[in-house]
Amino acid sequence: MPTVKFTYALKRFFPGLTQTPAQGQTLASILDEMEARYPGMRSYILDEQGQLRKHVNIFIDGHLIKDRTSLSDAFSSNSEIYIMQALSGG
Amino acid sequence: MQSTMLLGTRKGFIAYEFQQGQWKAINLSFEGVPVSIAYADPRNGTWWACLDHGHWGVKMHRSKDRGQTWEEVAAPAYPEGAEVKDGMKATTRYIWSMAHGGKQFPSKIWAGTDPGGLFVSEDEGNSFQLVESLWNHPTRKEGWFGGGRDLPGIHSIVVDPRDENHIHIGISCAGVFETVDGGKSWAIRNKGLRAEFLPDPSTEVGHDPHILVAAPGDPDSLWQQNHCGIFRSTDGAKNWEDIGQANGPAYFGFAIAVAEDNPLQAWVAPARSDETRTAIKGALCICRTDDGGKTWKELRNGLPQENCFDIVYRHALVSAGNAVAFGTTTGNLFFSADKGENWQVINNYLPMIYSVQFAD
């Protein structure tokens, strides 16, 4: 079962955040699972049209996903899915 | 005098309280997070913070205990399929304005966003819905556009206290729109404005009001600080008259405030226009008119007059009674107890200030 890991920056909003096993077959369904476990999280990662936010990245097994719009990148049952904050700011 | 002041800043929500003759900071919330609007609903004292997380999107939080605790509510979001223009999905980029719906509608709250959406809540802000009538206005896709931001934005929502279904809104870059039926239908109210940056300066839409306000004592007296001057209407925005100084400082700027007790009295915060967007000649001044814009007085006593780069954003100049306050882009907060004749510094070391509001 894939494991979802999170940038520490999200702990500010979801203090109980920890790496979490997921069952979904698609990234979108996995994010729905994360939303159920950490209510409100989906809106931090995706915009209201379901697209990955501009300054958020998702890596699957160390590779940046290609489809930021419909989140169709494939993964396997033992993949590590890492949600990170793209570095920018001031 | 109202004894609380709320600030939305580049690095958080800050509240000040007037205690023993001084403004003292009493609350800092969301430290490090840009707060596009800090808003107090005068009907119930609820505080609102509109956040602009760089990474995590725009969010709304409210506090019913003056900032001691906050709860997140669902921020205005565009429905599936909504498009800014053909092929470009609409997502909320920035919450640029908030206004309560009036005493007649105690559960109603309005919010305006970039990319040009007006939202309404009918349940005290638990949820917001897009006002489709304005979003579907035939002028929007072709006639509204971005100015300083990439997309048009609704920064002003003016609810008429005599009839709270009567609302004016200000949009950069589109202009002023009016509804008399609570948002079911909209009329364009840009007659008399100039859009010097367009091929047709007297275009019907595409004007750039930077802020739109109404005189509290005379809601038909509307004022706007526009990209192309200062304009006033005395007939509910049906006609606009240029009242800016052709050769004086009171011309370009972002902010305007009208006196509670005198619809002829208003303040603006002049800036040097397109090329630099800085204080004029390195000196900060607020201009006040006492005669509906026929003449303007420069108020400088207590304000820096050299080496100054500050400008004042659209929601960051306010008046209440004899009190006037403003916050600047370089984090200076000034206060006057005598209608701007004399200024004192509250703080020189704040983050960039986006909004200032007096509250109880």
From TrEMBL, chain A:
SUPFAM superfamilies: MoaD/ThiS (SSF54285). Coiled coil: none annotated. This is Molybdenum cofactor biosynthesis protein MoaD. It comes from Paraflavitalea soli.
UniProtKB/TrEMBL annotation, chain B:
It comes from the Bacteria. Keywords: Hydrolase. GO terms for biological process: xyloglucan metabolic process. The keyword Hydrolase applies. This is Glycosyl hydrolase. CDD domains: Sialidase_non-viral. GO terms for molecular function: hydrolase activity. Gene3D superfamilies: YVTN repeat-like/Quinoprotein amine dehydrogenase. It comes from Paraflavitalea soli.
